[in-house]
Write the C-alpha cells for this entry.
Amino acid sequence: MTGAGLLPLALALGPDLLSRAWAAGASESFQFFDAHQAAVVREATARLIPGPTDDPTEVGHPGAREAGVVGYIDTLLAAFTPSVAMPPIHAGGPFSSRPDPSRTDDMATFAPLTRVQRQAWTKRVAQLQQTYRDGVVLLDGLSGGDFTTASAPARDAALMQRDAAGFRDVLFTHAIEGTYSVPEYGGNLGLVGWEEIHFTGDVQPVGWSDAKVARSDGPNPAVVDGVVQSVVDLLRASGGG
C-alpha cells in the first residue's frame, strides 16, 4: 500500500477550472517557507497527488500543485507568527457564503483559541516547522543535492526511501488536507479538490434537495473484522493477504 499516494485521481474536469487554480497559485507568497523550501514541498506533494503537469495521464485532473497545497501547509506553519492576528486553526462558522453569496460568510473569521488550545497548537506547529525544515534537507540529500532539479523518477525514489517514510507520511496527510479541505485554510484553490471528486461542498444551511437525499450514491462497502471489504479484496488480488 506504500504506493497508494502515487495513484492518479479519478474524475475529469474542464480546462477552465484548472486555469482558475493555476492563476491563483501563481500569486502565492509565503510566511514561513523560503523560496527553496516552498519549491521542494510543492514538488514533493505533487509527486504524491500528481496533476497534469506532473503526469501526462492526469490531463484534466488537478493535483496537489493545482490545489495550492504548499500554501495550505505554509498557512498552518505560520499560524503563530506575530503578523497573524488570529491563528487560522479553526475556521469560524457555522456557515460560509458559498451556497448563497447574499449570506454572511461566518467562516471568513477564525475562531479564537483558549489559552490551553493556543499552548497545545503552538507546540504542535513548532514541531511541524522543524519537521519541514529537516524534511526539505533530507529530500535534497536523497535526490542528489536539490530535490527541485531532480527528475521525476529520482523524486519518487527519494520519497520512497525508508529514511523519508516519516516525512512522506506528513506530506501526504497535509496534501490530502490541502486538496480537499475548505479553502479558508489556504488550499483547495478554486475549489478544484471538491469539483474533482464531485463534492457539493459546504451547502448548509441551504442543504440538499429531497431527490439528492433519496438517491443512493452506491452500496456501502462491507466491513469484515473492522476492515473495509474492498481493501481486503485489493490486498488479496495483489497477493498481499
